[in-house]
Every structure is written in C-alpha cells, then in structure tokens.
Amino acid sequence: MSAPVQAALVSTLDTLVEQLVPASEMKPEWKETVVTGLTVDSRKVKQGNCFIAYPGHHSDGRDYLSAAFSAGASCALVEADSATTQAPQTPA
C-alpha cells in the first residue's frame, strides 16, 4: 500500500481548478480560498489544505468531507457519483 498523497503549496482554489472548470462556472469566492496543500487522507488535513475525496478500494473519501472540513480544510475536490457532476466544495 502506498503512502497517502500530501503536497505542500500555496495557491488559491480558482488557480488550481482553472484547467478543470470552465470560466463561466467559476465562483467568486474561489479567488479568496487559499490552499496550502493537497491531501487524500482526512486524518492528515492541516489548516488550509484541499481535501481530495474519491471512492477507494477500502473506503470512500467522500464519507470524510465533514471530518476534513472540521480539521481545517479550506475546500474539497470531490469525485461525483457516476453521471452527476459536482464543483469543488468549500466549507459552509
């Protein structure tokens, strides 16, 4: 089993997703959302991290969105269910 991915960076959400999301779907608050790192493990989330949630072989990262936001995630990139599309999430 490979180690969980965790990358350090400082950027804003709009910059990270500009190649993934059409400009017409960008939300103004994404310019204000600072991202200090990326992680797929909700137990490793640090303040400002972007949590990347997707279904895995043993568990579904989407089940840990609440834990990731409680731990300080500034946003989450979430794999949508089958035909459903979903934009990046930010805490309420």
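Second entry:
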Amino acid sequence: MSDSVYTTIATWVMPILSALKPYRDGEDILREVGIDIHCIEDANQRIPVDKMTQLWNLAEEISGDDCIGLEVIKYVSPTSFFMPSPMPIWPVARFVKAWSAWLSFPMW
C-alpha cells in the first residue's frame, strides 16, 4: 500500500467516510487516496499513516471544513477502535485549536 512504517487501525476510516457521505461517495474517496475498501471493516487490518494523512487532507478539501474532525467524531463509536490507534498529529492540533476557540466563545 505504501512505504510508511507507521500504521493505524483500518476501522478508523469508517467514521471519516460517514462524515463525508453528504459530499462524495466513499469508494471514490478511498480509491483516490489508495486505501483498499475491503480492509476498512477489519480491525486486524492496518493502514499506513501517510494514507490516513492523505484521507484527512482530502476530507478537509471535500467538505470545505478545516474542522472536519469535529464532524467525524459524531460517527465514532466504541466499535470504531479495537486497539489504540496513532493518528497523524495535524488532526489533533486542529481539534485542540477548535476546542480552544469554542472554550473562548462567550457562553452567556
């Protein structure tokens, strides 16, 4: 799939595709980033982190939302992860930035 040494659990792709459903077909998205559609429902499969980074970048581009991770989280369930999964650093940084902005918003 890729030359990347670091991988993440394949099932993490499913919540991302669910969030992108209103924008584009999931099979087309996976084809564009080079992820095998047959592996994404199997927690024993791994996907190179560089492919996941490409998927996150494409998710932002397709949705036009630089905080798309906040939409993806709506589709995450306990079954999305069967083991700890390292994520690319940039989605975490964007989440922290969005969370900080939300916390600074006057609530009253």
